[in-house]
Amino acid sequence: MNKNVILVYASAPGYPHGIIDPVEDIARCVSSWGCCLHVDACLGGFILPFIDDSQVEGMKKPKYGFEIPAVTSMSIDTHKYGCAHKGSSVVLYRSRSIRKFQYTAVTSWTGGMYISPSQPGSRSGALIAQTWAALNYFGYDGYAKMAKSIIKASLLLRKRISNIPQLELIGKDVTMIVAWKSADKDIDIYVVNDLLTDMGWHLSVLHSPPALHYCITSANVDSIELLVNDLLNVVTCAKSGKRNSKNSKAPIYGMANKMSNTGIVDDLLKDIQDSIDQA
Predict the structure, then answer these.
(1) Second label for 92, Cα 20 to 30 Å away, from 47, 80, 198, 213?
(2) What topology does CATH give the domain 141-265?
(3) ∠153-156-158 over CA atoms, to 5°?
(4) What is the pLDDT of residue 239?
């Protein structure tokens, strides 16, 4: 923190491990400097407000939003757990005076004076209408019911993984994300992912540390027991050395994780994107 800092941000929760940042602690630091504090609740905006402490087995849900005076803005993706179409999201501000800084005003344009709510300019009216329809269709009760089933599934997955000695959970917050890494030096978590992919699973691959996560939604809440059974099988295979996979990504992720020169990985990602665009 120094005089050049105008904004600090926190996540509620962060995408990789489902961890809710200690926003109250961060707020205390920010307050003394007088700068803004933004909370990225894009992932948790339609889940966290509906979680009751009684749902998470005695674990207290940390404060993260406007109930903390130092929080000046929040972002929430309606296209995620708000169940609206991709591309819709909202930014919330504590006051109108802060919101005015988002506006783009051009007074010197030869086409006339121009004002837009944001830098990107015009947005699809159809997208806005569909988002409004989704909010009205689900309503408070609909989102609360969805959140309850997701958190229940999250607790179940966390419990099942904690009973697998070869794996270790990452993060203590109960959210829609459950992340885990290998607790056995002979088991490569990326090999585990390869074997699960061959079985039809699509998990998110993490690094620093090497890990996997499962993002629970209303579409997959009933898949937990099946995932755990398959996870037990592939952990045994990975341990025994039966690591053959149709489309192995383990060497790629493993190599990227060990490279000290991140610029090489950056260039590799750009080449891959370039190849996709050309295709």
Answers:
(1) 213
(2) Aspartate Aminotransferase, domain 1 (3.90.1150)
(3) 110
(4) 84
